[in-house]
């Protein structure tokens, strides 16, 4: 019996996700604004979590043992502008790894489905979140 291939299989499975995420986080960590959010966090650990998370969401037989996205990001002030910037870095990493354009669109669509769990619409609403003992992280655009 044949079944429809998952996006995970279509892009080439775990080795492809690992290559894409290494390239993607190389760009993120080197970025003057986005990179500041990741200071003090192991790049290798984040790449692994992103591969597990996206592998699972793309239909792969993969376990994601990380935190819920809302909880993992709630102390960071993440605006739509930052999410779009991050998406552009992801799009170029996918293109450089020669993923087919139609599959790039599917990959980015899955990624964008999680934005609403992470995004803050205003500094006032972000400041109203009860972070208990966590320190809020608000990083202005250094180019602004
Ligand atoms: C501009 C937007 C974003 C920024 C600045 C950002 C930043 C970060 C940082 C700093 C961490 C490490 C948190 C920690 O270890 O305490 C993290 C973890 C993570 N992020 Fe993001 N993120 C963004 C968007 C996204 C999106 C859109 C997704 C998924 C589609 C995502 C998936 C994850 C995952 C899976 C983890 C690992 C959580 C864990 O270790 O349990 N992030 N992110």
Question: Can you walk through the features of this model?
Answer:
The protein is mainly alpha-helical and 144 residues long. It has one domain: Globin-like (Orthogonal Bundle), CATH 1.10.490. Helix content is 59%, strand content 0%. The protein is built from nine helices and no strands. It has helices at 7-11, 13-30, 34-37, 43-57, 69-73, 80-96, 101-112, 115-118, 123-127. Helix 2 crosses helix 4, helix 2 (13-30) crosses helix 6 and helix 6 runs antiparallel to helix 7. The longest helix is centred in the N-terminal third of the chain and has 18 residues, at 13-30. It is globular, with a radius of gyration of 16 Å. The N and C termini lie far apart (57 Å). Bound molecules: protoporphyrin IX containing FE.
Which structural traits does this protein have?
mainly alpha, Globin-like, binds protoporphyrin IX containing FE, 59% helix, 144 residues
